[in-house]
């Protein structure tokens, strides 16, 4: 997903910008004022560049495509084209969207607004395919699977199928929520990048006005070349920084959900009323699935990094326990086994979260800060030199 230095700043000295705004700088403008404008703009640019909005934006765009592809695969819509700004009425140009675009948005909306209703195409059993969670709860109560170990054993596969279907739909809803959250991040980065580009254009206009778009000294050219190399290194690290940020947020969400789920499961063991037990179990199941989905997305965001303390085998064990959770409540041995599985998972996902945080700050964060310090130093040197030579050129 890493995009490297994918968003380059326009060169201010080797290219003339065709639409460079020149009106603010009339011929009778004081040269000292123009140079001061250049210095202020360059300081603003250095400050805004430090957050690497361009490379982060490219990474955020790639991440949204990953999430959309994942969601569409689960919906059975992979391969369909998406509009830039999805709409079920008209596009920004007034044209009517094609049938594929409408279907993608309609199905996604239906499955996120009513997440526990499954289409008949997923399973051959109509009861399994059309039973939402509230009906599952009523069935569990009517069949007394919460308090009777024998009845729970008899119906465990039936309820496991219901749970599996409901959890599948929860996954679609969770990925839809992740997608919407990521779009908000994209919007924030887009605004920062647009602001930075606006500053670039203004600065390029000043440089073109003073020097005609050419280097005035050999030293200016050398420093600028060094600065571009340093920026490229910093921007590549900035792109990776965004990937690790995404992963870190998802791991923290996974850890928090796992902790809440474990508390819910432990509390369940102290409840007596079957309805309260069932509701607590359903809440626990949703929290655990949210944790597993966040963990899956975290690994998707850093596909080439092995997340320490968390194994595929453990994830499968947690998922299996979560699927059979409803009918395991009545069986004391299974309840204890599930408790151990959940406790181990909660402890390990917390360790993974801590490991990610420590690794990030000891390696990537440190490398990025050093690269940014190099860029800042070179930018300051170039700014000081240009302030001197530009001032001399305008006298």
From TrEMBL:
Chain positions covered by the region annotation Disordered: 1-29
GO BP annotation list: positive regulation of apoptotic process; positive regulation of autophagy
Sorted UniProt keywords: Coiled coil
Coiled-coil stretches: 179-236
GO CC terms, sorted: Bcl-2 family protein complex; cilium
Coiled coil is among the record's keywords: yes
The name this protein goes by in its record: GH13328
Organism, scientific name: Drosophila grimshawi (Hawaiian fruit fly)
Taxonomic placement: Eukaryota, Metazoa, Ecdysozoa, Arthropoda, Hexapoda
């Amino acid at each position: 997903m890493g995009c490297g230095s994918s968003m380059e700043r326009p060169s201010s000295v080797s290219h003339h910008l065709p639409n460079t705004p020149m009106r603010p700088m009339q011929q009778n403008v004081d040269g000292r004022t123009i140079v001061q404008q250049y210095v202020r703009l360059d300081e603003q640019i250095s400050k805004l560049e430090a957050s690497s909005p361009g490379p982060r934006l490219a990474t955020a765009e790639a991440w949204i495509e990953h999430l959309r592809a994942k969601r569409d695969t689960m919906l059975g819509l992979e391969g369909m084209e998406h509009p830039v700004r999805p709409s079920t009425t008209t596009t920004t140009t007034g044209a009517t969207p094609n049938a594929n675009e409408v279907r993608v948005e309609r199905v996604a909306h239906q499955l996120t607004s009513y997440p526990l209703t499954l289409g008949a195409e997923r399973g051959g059993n109509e009861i399994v395919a059309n039973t939402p969670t509230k009906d599952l709860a009523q069935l569990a109560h009517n069949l007394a699977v919460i308090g009777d170990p024998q009845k729970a054993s008899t119906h465990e596969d039936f309820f496991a199928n219901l749970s599996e279907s409901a959890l599948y739909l929860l996954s679609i809803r969770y990925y839809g929520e992740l997608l919407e959250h990521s779009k908000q991040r994209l919007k924030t980065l887009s605004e920062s990048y647009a602001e930075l580009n606006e500053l670039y254009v203004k600065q390029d206009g000043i440089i073109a006005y003073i020097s005609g778009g050419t280097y005035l000294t050999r030293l200016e050219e050398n420093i600028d070349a060094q600065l571009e190399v340093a920026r490229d290194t910093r921007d590549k690290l900035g792109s990776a920084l965004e990937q690790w940020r995404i992963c870190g947020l998802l791991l923290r969400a996974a850890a928090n959900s796992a902790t809440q789920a474990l508390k819910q499961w432990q509390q369940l063991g102290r409840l007596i009323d079957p309805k309260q037990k069932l509701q607590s179990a359903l809440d626990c199941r949703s929290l655990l699935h949210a944790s597993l989905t966040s963990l899956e997305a975290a690994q998707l965001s850093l596909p080439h990094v092995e997340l320490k303390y968390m194994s595929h085998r453990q994830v499968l064990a947690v998922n299996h326990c979560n699927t059979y959770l409803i009918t395991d409540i009545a069986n004391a041995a299974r309840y204890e086994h599930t408790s151990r599985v959940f406790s181990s998972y909660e402890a390990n996902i917390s360790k993974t979260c801590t490991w990610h945080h420590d690794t990030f700050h000891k390696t990537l964060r440190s490398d990025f800060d050093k690269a940014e310090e190099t860029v800042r130093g070179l930018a300051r040197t170039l700014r000081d030199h240009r302030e001197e030579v530009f001032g001399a050129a305008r006298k």
